[in-house]
Give the backbone structure.
Amino acid sequence: MSMQMGTLERVAGSIVVGSGISDVKMGEVVMVGREELIGEVVKLTEGGFTAQVFESTGGVGPGEKIVGTGKKLVAELGPGLLDRIYDGVARDLELLFKERGSFIQRGVRVNTLRRDVEWEFKPSLLKGASVGEGDILGTVLETPMLRHHILVPPGVKGRLKQIEEGSFRVNETIAIIAGKDGEYEASLMQEWPVKVPRPFKEGGRLGLDLPLITGQRVIDTFYPIAKGGAAAIPGGFGTGKTVMLQQIAKWSDADVVVYTGCGERGNEMCDVLTEFPRLKDPKKGRPLMERTILLANTSNMPVAAREASIYMGVTMGEYYRDQGYDVALMADSTSRWAEALREVSGRLEELPVEQGYPAYLPDRVAEFYERAGRMVVLGSPERNGSVTIIGAVSPPGGDFNEPLTIATLRYAGVFWALDPELAFSRHFPAVNWLKSYSLYSGPLLSTFTESWASHSEYEKTLSWWHEISSRYEEYRTKALELLNTAASIESIARVIGESALPDDQQLVLLAAEMLKEGFLRQFAFDEVDAYCQPEKQALLLKMLIDFHTNALKLVTRKVPIDLVKELQQIPLIMRAKENPGGTRYIAQLMEDSQQALEKIASNYGFTTKEEY
Amino acid sequence: MVSRPRRSIKLTSKLRLEDIQGEVYRGVSEIKGSLVFVRDVKDVTYDEVVIMRGPDNIDRMGRVLDVSHELAIVQVLGSTSDLQTDMALKFTGTTFKIPVSDQVLGRMFNGLYRPVDGLPPLASGDVRETDGTPINPIARIQPNNFIQTGISAIDGMLSLVRGQKLPIFTESGLPHNRLAAQIARQATVRGEKEEFALVFGAMGLKRDDATFFVDQFRNSGAIEKSVVILNLAEDPAVERLLTPRIALTVAEYLAFDLELHVLVILDDMTLYCEALRELSAAKEEVPGRAGYPGYLYSDLATIYERAGIVSGRKGSLTQMPILTMPGGDIRHPIPDLTGYITEGQVFLDRDLYLRGIYPPINVLPSLSRLMRSGIGSSKTRDDHRDVADQLYDAYARGIRARDLAKIVGELGLNEREKKFLEFSEAFEKLFVGQGDSENRPVEETLDRAWDLLAKIPEAELVRIHEELIAKYHPHHRANTRE
């Protein structure tokens, strides 16, 4: 790759104009000024070009050099990505810290992958085998939680002339592949331009019918997300976007989590860094960091790197997908990314459309979200992998009618609308149950019920357990119906007062209240409640819906609503989610409350069971 | 290639044209607002500081905003009135830097870091770029030291921790200055004797407001441990763009070099943003919402993100910016973007103030994102989190009942709604309301909360764990005492 030297003509903030590089390409990485600040070419003109610089340009002026590297912005991919934190252009922040101290200086070059670490490589192919792109050459145990497959890079095929077992650094040759156009020396790492989606098997996109189980009730039960799907979390500030993303990053059943902090708070990233190593993966019992990659480009870091961080994250995600893993990518927040696009566009003096955003914003959003998916990946042995994208959106003023939210909703299959009203009364997650939706919910629910039906031996022996698994969708619909009806009754109650409502309507309000408190509200920092096992979700929902069904029988037989409201079990039901007794406790409570209702019924001379 | 050495010049003293070596440029092509356009420049760099002398023989400072071979656009820091295209300029070859040393404590400067307390400028010390550099996220320490402000609404429900940035969202005519001064006076970390060092950055403040603050610091003796940077209402608006950055550069020095715990009050961020808009308009940039530039978020972030705790240093930098919401609208771009960067907000409410409640903090739209890590059994008390949650919930219900009562009348409410209504009235008077010299320890704050929560039926306290109810609820406490 040839380096070419040019001259700086103009410097205006993060945008510089240069000349004198003859075959400069769009997207080419350039090094600006004496300190060789990294930038990327964003515009070509006759005799010159414009680049955005990923670092601050104070003290740089016309006449200084600008060097074209001939390369695009690439991600270094290989073992050692996990359990680390990087900035927006994937510089290892810990190395940066060791080299330059607590504050990020500009003009410092550090690699993504550490060169001094040796990895134990175990080949899975023999010398002489013929290999094609995506084939697994061998494996490296990257962390105790993840076996890293070393792949033949896209575009390479031939005969395996040499392959060696042993300890290697990421840039040392582990195999030689002899192809038609010469030999390729494979190492543990490869590079990939971040703005180009990595290829997968042609026609290999799979249906989205596996749920990403998050342990968050409002998600798993009401608005589930599929592995390989895309979700948007729009919400004004203080509505809990970040906490929700972090919850999914912590508890979802993905193999690898890429958490991209794009233009957000430094203390929040620090929070993740402090908390993740302490928390254990619910399935494997290992520290969460062992399956996590963090990208931190905080709001005061250079704007152009913010744009890069999103692509960097998704490229890393695709790389693990290609190994056959399920990856969950969190982007917090895509609005900051869109603003970076707007800022650069403004400085390029492009014609703005709505709210100053460039006209190509929806295209960029589409390109990004379309990199999600579950697919058959390249190479043998045949395997599937997925990238699930969950993007936070921070609409100005919390108003969803703005360009980015609108563009995002077009491509995301799940919409978790966060509601400031709920957040004000500290109902978290503040997902509005009336405005949100999931396009995946139908097929996902059946796999969701299957997954928990197989979980718990204890429940399987119980007769009602079969009933829930066959009627879960019905329960869910019933719950949403109750919440919906309650919303319209509330607006009437606001005019005439709750006590003036007929008893059955008061019961709906009570049931909705119990659903909100006992099911929808989930405390992210409670030891028991932070992660709710699927089977526990099912049981909680059944308890709440059955309570309403049975209480309704009482109310229709003219039992005064106050007798129901006074039941001691009601506060217990609302708190059952936090009880360390888990499903056994809930099963017991379910029986108790049923008996309590039955007792009232018998006082009035009938039984709740007769209509069954 | 440019080989000119980077000179390090102290820009604080009254820098004069003669003090700088190098070529003098005579005459500029255009002056527009605070911008000056200079043709045919050589060896000029982006963000470089410029000294300009007009026909009035006054030297002004400026910064390069855009530079090419043909043209440099310079932003004048200060008034451009009386400037003529026939002026002299020199490029200093350095970006904007200020000297800092331990002598800075107890001093007072204007918005360009020139002393206004009659003392000479800082003589020696380190030279720092005012723009600062981002803290490496990995070098940050999670802020988790509870700061007791002695104000119940804040300590109880919006706990502030060391290293946090918590703005006050307010409106003109509300007592935000009184509140900020009270916090500055009372803030302590529990179990530590050490007081906070104060850095006060005023942007476009009225002279009497500035005097109020300075008097407050003086009366409480805090002036010895404080630094005041004053850009007053009558000072040029463009200077305001530097003021918060100077204040934070000084604060970073105090926190991370001298290892002090520093509280920075920036007042009023709205006027800072307006100055930024003015400059953006002069540069003919594409305006975003309400005419503010599209990069307002990024620009504000370079100010607010300069709070925190850094590993290996003992000090901390806590920010409390004050911003007046134009028209009281929290959705206005300034409070909106601020809220996305800061770790919560303290919201002052005109309605509460009109009903005679000081401090008029409306807790519902207020929030402290770092509260969770700063409270609990080892830090404040084991019931703190649950009590705060329950207060939020109960108060929100009380407010709903109050709205309902406006339609159906209080008689139309049911018993439950009446209880919550009663609770919310008492909550505003006895919990939120307090005197401006009343300093309540956090235990008193929590005990007050329990007394109020006792007004609603125990079964309604679903957000408090049962064992905590048994431990702290006044009914149970009374029982155990008997």
The longest strand of chain A covers residues 384-393. Chain A touches chain B through 78 residues (CB under 8 Å).
